[in-house]
Amino acid sequence: MTIPALSLTAALLVLAAGATAGAQSTDGLRGAAPAAPRPMRLTVELRAGPTVPVGDYQQTLSLGMDAALLAELRPWASPVRLRGEVGGARFALQNDGFAELSGHLDYLSGVASVVRPFPRAGGGPVPYLLGGVGGYYLRGEETVDLGEQGRVTSRRDPVLRPGLSAGAGVQLSAGRVSATLEARVQHVLATGADLTVVPITLGLKF
């Protein structure tokens, strides 16, 4: 199965899990007094961590760094959460072994996701799944050192491309502050070779 298919499947599983949980909750309330709805809550999160290039760019890009600012909304009486995020990542180019090569590839991103947490009755860490879609603004630059012939620098024209995002994480809360550990697959549908990366990030949620 391809990376885009896996990402789409994960997103559908998140939605299905939310719908199933909502139906079970409704069944359990039949014949009982209605419970008070949970209040809507908005949280903000800062996160950062390494991101690993895979697929077509695995031999071209070095380990990168990823950072993002997230806002997450929990609607009333809903088992799922809605997340919006803006972020970016930068990767250094690997030397190809034939010439002195330097440069970078980076992107800015905006992603909308659905998050399905699975809280435990006894409390403790809360695992969750997520899936979403977004836009990725790609740009880059490379410089080749040709020795006595000098250095040649070329810049990649910036381009905005769609992408898919899916992953899993765990959240540990302490009062109104939470820490998260999350791993995702982000697949950018670029012209030519697609860009696939795996960010592994730590975050603080307020």
Describe this entry's structure for a reader.
With 206 residues, the protein is mainly β. 13% of the residues lie in helices and 59% in strands. It has one helix at residues 3-29; strands at 41-54, 64-74, 81-92, 100-117, 126-145, 151-174, 177-188, 195-205. The chain has an eight-stranded antiparallel β-barrel with strand order 1-2-3-4-5-6-7-8. The longest helix is centred in the first third of the chain and has 27 residues, at 3-29. The two termini are 37 Å apart.
Shape: elongated
Give start-end ranges of low-pLDDT stretches.
3-33
CATH architectural category: Beta Barrel
CATH fold-level topology: Porin
First and last CA, distance: 37 Å
The level of helicity is: 10-25%
- Give the averaged pLDDT, no decimals: 83
Assembly classification: single chain
**Can you write the helix and strand succession as a string?**
HEEEEEEEE
Total discrete domains: 1
Would you spell out the secondary-structure blueprint of this structure?
Layout: H1 3-29, E1 41-54, E2 64-74, E3 81-92, E4 100-117, E5 126-145, E6 151-174, E7 177-188, E8 195-205
Antiparallel strand pairs: 1-2, 1-8, 2-3, 3-4, 4-5, 5-6, 6-7, 7-8
Using brief descriptors, characterize the structure shown.
206 residues; mainly beta; Porin; elongated
Short description:
This protein is mainly beta. Helices cover 13% and strands 59% of the residues.
